[in-house]
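pipeline: protein-struct stage 2 | run 1193 | F-box/WD-40 repeat-containing protein
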Amino acid sequence: MSRARGMSGELKGSAAEYLGLGGTNFMEFECQSGTKVGLKDCSRDCVDYSCRGKADPSFIEPSKNPKSSKFNSEKQNPLRRLDGKGGSLSLECEESLAVNEVLHDCRSITDLPPALISEILNCLEPKELGVVSCVNTSLYRLASEHHVWKEFYCERWGQPILLAPLGTENADEKSWKELFVEREFRSKTFMGRYNIDTLYGHTEAVRTVSVLSSKKLVFTSGYDQIVRMWNMEEGLSIASSRPLGCTIRAVAADSRLLVAGGTDGFIHGWRAEDGNPHLFDLTSPQNQNTEFRVWEHEGPITCLALDLNKMYSGSWDMTIRVWDRSSLKCLNVLMHNDWVWSLAPHDTTVASAAGSDLYVWDTNIGSELAIVTNVHAGNAFSLARSHTGKLLFTGGEDGAIHMFEIIRNVKFHVKRVATWIPHLGAVYSLAFEFPWLVSASSDGKLSLIDVRKLLRTNRSYVVEKLSKVDNKVKNVEPPQRMLHGFGSNLFAVDVGLDRIVCAGEEGVVRIWNFSEALEVEQRVRALRGLRLENRMRRRKLQSEMTSKGSRGDQCSVAAKKNQLNGDRNSWRNRRRVAGKLKA
């Protein structure tokens, strides 16, 4: 019995530490309403000795015990303040009493203040938060409406894209939890069935692909010097520009601006037109209000990127230029030691791959924050970045893919987390949409890597144990899927919702459509819900039948007892009647 009590005490203590409460307070949290709870453990620091002596006759003052007085003299006296009864209270005891007042009538976690429950839920992962929401109705309401769902969504996919949802509701009517669950559900489709749409129109190799998911548009260009716009859903060509005069190696687009970078060192751009369902008019003659061209680079432009207020361009002239989108003026020039192959901006920083090195820059002051040298054996051709900006992915001439984490402490650190070698040739392009990293290589294959498991299992390893950058990091695991069916040299790839768009030397654009897998998964989920509902209904009926059966058994037993008693009474009555007749 004593051993069992000790084990229960250890369990309660561990639970109290998880909730951030002391052991004494947790005992009060579990006490019944009729139980008296004291503060004997902290009374030594709370109440004056004179008062303590009156309350407890067996108490020995420190002056009468030389050992205790010696111990207390060496110990630093805690801070005290006078209470209303003339005694002195320490600050620790005051905080303990305040917590006790809050938890006095609490018997479960649902009795805690909503603010405290919110802080506890804020420490959970999405899966754990979903488990908590299944406990009872009150926790379901608190967990489903918690603000952390918005943080979960935005740190994985950025701001939500208002598209046709899975059900009949509109996206703006859904909660952040529903948006998160729907997007997480969509991310599973890359392991399912697919269809391939092949788009013809380019006459030479395609060097760049850009997907605008919010408008379901795809932009491509290459050696034929023409920028083409495609409908991602139907796989049809919408419009194409006139020849721009040189090879186009980079294209970037958002809902307000489309830019293309040429080997002659210029940036050609189109502004969105109001009322145009496809945003940009590529077919009309040059219009100064909607079309522009800027010259600053002294070499071919290899990469472009856009954010809310700035435009970024990288070139073989070993520079990255930061532009103001409205005035088209160059704000900063970031000098590298080799040709710039790729870049990825986030907030006030931009990551770049130049030669075989990886750089991170501060775009406001134009200073170098970090550099990792010799990332690949050869050039680092491709670069991708997560929506939070903390994860970087590089692909190089050696066929390897490296994953890095940006750690901001006192200094700016870039630590290597993992390495994959899924390809036999150079990795020319990378695209990342949580949790999938997609790579295109010169071997004509696409690799799909799910980083969720890596992030979940190696979180402490990433933060604590990575002290050195080693180029010979072992492979974490093979990619989850390889997509074949191409010739050689895939130059570009991009991801948009449930589609992967790639292009290469063949001059055709292929769209891997996983919407069929999404529909199959929807049907499977609906059948699973129906089976669960039927199972719960059967359990309910079974419990009702069991309860009715137990009642019937009780009634039959009572009837038998009554029948026996009735038989005995009738026999006694007959005997009495016979006796009366004899008399």
